[in-house]
Design brief:
Helix content: 10-25%
Number of strands: 6
Oligomer: single chain
Largest sheet: 6 strands, mixed
Number of domains: 1
Strand content: 35-45%
Number of helices: 3
Amino acid sequence: MTEMSKIDTQALLADVTRFVWHEADLLDACAYDDWLELWTEDGLYIMPIGEGDDHANQLNLCYDNAKMRRDRIGRFQAGLSISSAPPAVTVRTVSRIVIDSAEGDLITVRAAEHLVEDKFGRQRVWAGNVWYVLKVTEDGSFKLHQKVIRLLNSDGMLNSFSYLF
């Protein structure tokens, strides 16, 4: 049994939802410096290919620690990545937010994400399941400790991305 029964789950779900929607809004706005501030220093941003949960020992589209997140954002901002020149415009929807567990200062959350990309006069739609591990900070807010995005077609044909999911 998790500690979920000891907390106000409706209030926690509302707080988690606000945080997840805020993160999505920052990504759509390309506010990458603000997005980087949402993370714990030891947090991981992961986009696995195919099935499996041993992300450290499997093929991933992204497996970014703090340095890799900063480097990726730096390439986006400098236009040094061919996929980011010009940057895509995105609109994402995060829904079906469910709290799986709340243990100590870690909250495990899962959600669905739909992302629409507009670039070069065409739109592409991506869908995936997202798992978040949020760390409760001293002031009661959250930091991203882990984010795993499993695109529905992650083991199929993928195009280059000029944004984060």
